[in-house]
Amino acid sequence: MYNYLLFIHILSAITAVAAVICYPIIMSSARTVGQAKFALSLLEKTAILPKLGGTLLLLTGLAIGFQETYLFRERWYVASIVIFLVILVIFAGLLPAGIKQQLKLLLQTQGDNLPEVYRLSRRRSAWLEVVANLAVFISILLMVFKP
Question: What is the number of other CB atoms lying within 10 angstroms of the CB of residue 30?
Answer without folding.
Answer: 20
